[in-house]
Amino acid sequence: MTPPLSADRNAFLPLALLAVALPFLIAGSAPPTSTYFNQALAFGGCGLWLMVWALGARPGAAGSSAATRGLLGVGALLLLATALSSAPWGQRLAPLGCLLLGGALMHAVARSCRDGRGGDWTLPLMCALLTAGLLSVVIGAVQVFAPELADGRWVAFATTPGRAIGNMRQPNQLSTLLLWAAAAAVWLSLRERRPIVQLALVLAALVFGVAMTASRTGLVGVVLLALWGLLDRRLPAPVRGLLLAMVPFYALCWVGLEQWLASHGVMFYGDDQLKKTLHGDASSSRGRIWANTWALVQAHPWTGVGVGAFNFVWSMTPFPGRPVAFFDHSHNLPLQLAVESGLPLAGAVLAGVAWAGWRARRALVDADEERARDARTALFMLVMVGVHSLLEYPLWYVYFLLPAMMLAGWLTGSVPASVEPARPPAAAPGWRLRLGPWLWSVTGALALVASVWSTVEYWTVSVIFEPELSFGEAEPLSARIERGRRSVLWGHHADYARATMAKAPEEVFDAFDRPLHHLADTRLMIAYARALEGRGETARAAHVAARLREFRNPASAEFFSVCDAPGSDRRPTPFQCLPDPALPAELMRP
Question: What is the rounded end-to-end Cα distance, in angstroms, of the chain?
Fold first, then answer.
């Protein structure tokens, strides 16, 4: 499906493979974050692509469309909210960098499309996504049919028998990648006028890969693929029929996988998903986290709980019926905006996106055939990741966020200049045209440098958990922790190790601030409760213990065992056995 290279518009394909395809395919990892290398490569690779492209960019005078400017305004709001949040500064740098690079990429792609050089971005992007998708089908097949071949270096270990998770280790993310690849295959097939049989084989492989994930999000995506074929009357009839046929083909794949795996003594994970959907919790605890999130929105309607503070405030707020997993995200993008930033800002962001989408509709109906096809493809792919964002948080991963921003630039940049209100020549003077490439190249260079710096810092923290990663003789654990704490970006992981390993956690109380802004889990909450008790703050300690009890985590059984032990009625009562004081979450910050 990959078209031949040409010197004028496809020289960026190697950069796209590095920045877009390879991040989806890396299996190797180092603690504490399993997808760190995937995300760092996506960030640095996209920065390199932007920098190299900008060095030769010659933007025309058409300017950006109103839709593009609207999305840039939305990005500015998100940047401001993140910059003004109460999270530790180092934990704000990564999202700020991603927003800045994403905005620059969207603007660059949109301007390229307006200037007739969209192929510098769109063709390499679609080739890279299709490459990543097809190779991920192979990876998924190994995980399902020959899991003994997975080595953790080239193919990630399968965590669930009979289920493909890809090298991202997330079946839902794998399904979205495969459906993006399916859209790329359709676009490339039409662009290159490939035989319909070739497209059918590629789509069949990708949809089979979606079936191997047993992802309900993937099933929704296959239905969306069919809806694209149903609603887009400008697609050729054979292509529309092929897209519609993907739903029954998916059902056949499901049955075939079920039968094959059963004959080899393995239960197809899709059967368990189906039982949950029909007879259990169809949302897999999302319904309860959404209810909890909405309660927090009602309690903090105007300013929210603070960007990056959702996990801490949720963990420290009484919710007797809470889901037992430690959620660091509400698993719904609009709810996440509302709970962290407040309803006014969330409303402004969503209204801005809706307005930009409305203005971009002109690309679907008023553009020439090629641009309209481009816009409809980009729209489907954005809808796909948008639906996924209503159930999880794929855009919190760099390897989804940055391609999505490119797609947004592709869509908004496809709006014909002829349907935009005329702008006076003074509105786009020559110095602005020259400033654009300079800003793009500087942004790309900074992103590349930042990814290298981040990786060096990450290594100083990773050796805390795997000392064999050290170059030379490993340092003592205490020395590794102290060195890791100096990391601006990743020091919260070293603080976590220091706080949870301390015999007297009250003596290292300063170590709790950053990890509690990252994720409050069982070990951290136990250590925090003991630290508060050691400082004489018994009521706060009892509150943390009561919140931990709500999670019903087996790892906390020993911590609460004193409450049921013989003689547990002795005085003074252990703090974890005291009645819940139900304090406001704001009083629980270190």
Answer: 55
